[in-house]
């Protein structure tokens, strides 16, 4: 090949490369990027970050759902515990991740709504994406067996007669339990004295030991004690009675209105995740909440499977954030 032909061949090759880089039509747009469009998702292992230590209720729920996600996406789903800063360290890690669907967080009421509403944690409730709510974890107002209070209505009536005389144990002033109790007290026009005991087990022991009039616990923490007759369920936050505790009346039955039915667990995504990927995660979450293996595990935990689509889930979280903002300083 002579030098002229070599120059022609090189020129054609370079032109082809430039057209590829700039777009075949010369528009400069180029081919769509698969990470942006979501067409290649999932293309690698998926990180499912839990914002609390291994072995806790949040961790167990995430690990219950992970196998279903793995089956649906045909990729490894690696559960990673990243605790710290009241659950917000995990969310900030999410914020720094590529919005390609390969990193998600199993969020609870704290990092979803309460903590970003109350403090400067690097994000707000508008700064992350949502695939939807997976479960609602109901709360039960509990007293020791033999207490003067056998219903929530009796307890609230006593608080109305003598403001501040009724004591209820909670895990802490900025927890969802405290926020829900304050919201219900405001709605009913009563004053309750909330006593922080740092943890669900501690609050229940305080009530059973007679140190306080009642405690406000996650359903799974009190089911065994109520069934054994050691504790009395005064009322539950769900709209309908729980199949786990059918004899415990709802709070609504007694004229007491909680702002939400319980603590949500939701799947969080980085902001800017393409709609196509969000939709795939929402579909996977919905399918997982109907999976027989998942349902069997949820029954053991006392968690209520309750898929709520992204838009409606956003409304639930906004209500919780509003309740937190209005009442945490009281």
The first-level CATH class name of the largest domain: Alpha Beta
Helix percentage: 40-55%
What integer value in Å does the Rg equal? 25 Å
What's the CATH architecture of the largest domain? 3-Layer(aba) Sandwich
Stretches where pLDDT is under 50 for at least 5 consecutive residues are 1-36
Give the DSSP E fraction (strand runs of 2 or more residues).
15-25%
* Helix-strand sequence: HHEHEHEHEEHEHEHEHEEHHEH
Q: Calculate the terminal CA-CA distance, rounded to whole Å.
A: 87 Å
> Which superfamily, in CATH terms, is the homologous superfamily of the largest domain?
Bordetella uptake gene, domain 1
Number of strands: 11
Return the domain count. Answer: 2
Largest sheet data: 6 strands, mixed
Average pLDDT, rounded to a whole number, is 87
Return the structural class: alpha/beta
The number of helices is 12
Map the helices and strands.
Blueprint: H1 3-22, H2 34-37, E1 46-50, H3 57-73, E2 77-81, H4 88-95, E3 103-107, H5 109-118, E4 128-137, E5 139-144, H6 152-161, E6 167-170, H7 176-188, E7 193-196, H8 200-208, E8 214-218, H9 219-228, E9 231-236, E10 263-270, H10 275-288, H11 292-301, E11 304-308, H12 310-327
Parallel strand pairs: 1-2, 1-3, 6-7, 6-8
Antiparallel strand pairs: 3-10, 4-10, 4-11, 5-8, 5-9
Helix pairs in contact: 3-10, 3-11, 5-12, 7-12
How would you portray this structure in words?
The protein is α/β, with parallel strands linked by helices. The protein has 2 domains: 46-136 and 262-327, Bordetella uptake gene, domain 1 (D-Maltodextrin-Binding Protein, domain 2), CATH 3.40.190; 139-254, D-Maltodextrin-Binding Protein, domain 2, CATH 3.40.190. It is built from 12 helices and 11 strands. The strands form 2 sheets. The protein has a 6-stranded mixed beta sheet with strand order 2-1-3-10-4-11, with helices on both faces. It is globular and about 60 Å long. Residues 1-36 have low confidence and may be disordered.
């Amino acid at each position: 090949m002579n030098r002229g032909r070599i120059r022609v061949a090189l020129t054609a090759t370079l032109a082809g490369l430039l057209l590829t880089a700039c777009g075949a039509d010369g528009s400069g747009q180029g081919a769509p990027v698969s990470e942006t469009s979501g067409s290649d998702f999932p293309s690698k292992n998926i990180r499912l970050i839990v914002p609390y230590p291994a072995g806790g209720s949040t961790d167990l729920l995430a690990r219950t759902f992970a196998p279903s996600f793995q089956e649906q996406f045909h990729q490894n789903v690696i559960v990673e515990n990243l605790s710290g800063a009241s659950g917000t360290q995990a969310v900030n890690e999410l914020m720094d991740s590529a919005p390609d669907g390969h990193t998600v967080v199993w969020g609870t009421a704290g990092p979803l709504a309460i903590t970003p509403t109350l403090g400067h944690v690097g994000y707000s409730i508008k700064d992350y994406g949502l695939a939807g709510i997976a479960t609602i974890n109901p709360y039960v107002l509990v007293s020791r067996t033999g207490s003067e209070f056998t219903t929530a209505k009796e307890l609230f009536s006593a608080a109305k007669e003598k403001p501040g005389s009724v004591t209820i144990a909670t895990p802490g002033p900025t927890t969802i339990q405290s926020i829900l109790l304050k919201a219900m007290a405001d709605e009913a026009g009563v004053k309750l004295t909330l006593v922080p005991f740092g943890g669900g087990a501690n609050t229940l022991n305080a009530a059973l030991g007679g140190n306080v009039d009642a405690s406000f616990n996650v359903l799974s923490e009190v089911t065994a004690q109520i069934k054994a007759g050691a504790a009395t369920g005064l009322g539950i936050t769900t709209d309908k009675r729980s199949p786990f505790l059918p004899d415990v009346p709802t709070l609504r039955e007694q004229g007491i209105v909680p702002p939400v039915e319980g603590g949500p667990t939701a799947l969080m995504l980085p902001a800017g995740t393409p709609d196509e990927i969000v939709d795939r995660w929402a579909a996977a979450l919905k399918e997982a909440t109907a999976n027989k293996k998942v349902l069997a595990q949820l029954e053991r935990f006392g968690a209520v499977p309750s898929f709520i689509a992204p838009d409606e889930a956003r409304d639930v979280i906004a209500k919780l954030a509003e309740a937190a903002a209005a009442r945490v300083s009281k």
